[in-house]
Amino acid sequence: MRLRLELKERFAPATANKMLSVLRGVLRAARDMGLMTEGEFQTAASLETIKAAKPTAGVSVT
To answer: Is the terminal CB of the chain with fewer CB neighbours within 10 Å at N or C?
Structure first.
């Protein structure tokens, strides 16, 4: 969760989500090589994607 928060603060949502995707790939490779159990993989890879902030509705433009 700390990593997700750090990425959210430092990068645009699309960039942060790409980094999370790469991390999931590394975790998947570690699981496939027997370096972690399926349960450890599921716990570590369960990071939610970072959503972009929605623009405020109803703001008038002059």
So the answer is: C
Provide DSSP, the chain.
Answer: -HHHHHHHHHS-HHHHHHHHHHHHHHHHHHHHTTSS-HHHHHHHT-PPPPPPPPPPTT----
Place of tokens 């995707």: 21
Q: Which residue has the tokens 């991390």?
A: 23
Rounded CA separation 38/12 (Å): 31
Nearest-angstrom CA–CA distance, 54 and 62: 20
8 Å CB contact between 46 and 20: no
What pTM was computed for the model? 0.77
The pLDDT of residue 50 is 87
